[in-house]
Structures are given as structure tokens and as C-alpha cells.
Design a protein that fits this description.
mainly beta; OB fold (Dihydrolipoamide Acetyltransferase, E2P); 2 domains; 4-stranded antiparallel β-sheet; 1 helix; about 10% helix
Length: about 170
Amino acid sequence: MKYETTAGSDTYIIEVDDDGSVVIDGKSVDCDFQQQSTDPNLYSLLLDKQSYDLRITDQDEALNVLIEGDNIEVKVTDERSRRLAGIKKKLGQGDGDILLKAPMPGLIIDTLVKKGDQVQLDQPLVILESMKMHNEFKAPRNAVVKELRVKKGDKVQRNETMVILS
């Protein structure tokens, strides 16, 4: 999966393959990223043989990362979201069903809507955990939840439909 990550004024393209290998801006790196069992916001990062302790908390549209005493706002956008942003204007006026699919295998952490709910553009619908990261999936336009095909605790596969909006 490819991610565009912005930290401060710097932007990086990070690719994480199914086998766990990591490429940052075209350069392969040794990387191990683990959540600490003592605190869900604490992580250990081993990057090219350098160890870092991180505290990561969610903000509205970004993550707040405390690393070596510095607070850094980090925005992470996956490939699917970048493509979706490019066509969002068309979808905003579009009609017909929208199938919200899992871009990667993972675990459903939470469902924030139920069948029949009216949802607004950018309203969070489902939270999927994959590779120790929480991914929040939002409504691409104002719509109605036609079907909710997942529930908290479900495991999903890549391209599995999670929500159908109409």
C-alpha cells in the first residue's frame, strides 16, 4: 500500500508491501513498528537500526506524533483516498450506489453508522486497523447507508465491501 505522508513542511511517499518491506521516497529501509502493550498511544520504531519511542494521538485530520521531545503534526493519505479526492466533486453531485471497500486486509475496530442513517460528506463510517494503523473511512458525499456489511471485530480482506451508500 502506498501512502503520502506530510510531516511539517516535508512530504514523503511511503510504500508498505504485503511482506512488510518498506520503501520511503524510492529507498528501501529496514523498519519495525510496534505498538507497546502498556499504552495504546506508545509505539516503538526501529528505522535503519535507529530506535525511536513515539507517542501518537489522533487529531481531527492528522496525527500528533511526539518524538524525541518534538510534537509533529503528521497527515497520512493512502492511495485510495488520494484518488478519491480527485473525483470527489463528481461524486458530490452523483447518484447511484457507492461501494466502500477495504483497500487492505484488516480488523474492523468500530462502525460509526447503521443501516438507514443519513450521512454527510466526510462523515466517518468505519474504522479499520491494518498494519497497526487505524484507517478511518468517510462518506465521499451526502448519502444514506443502504447496507452495513461489517461489524466491530470482523476481519476483512482486500476489496471486501464494508458499506454500501445510496
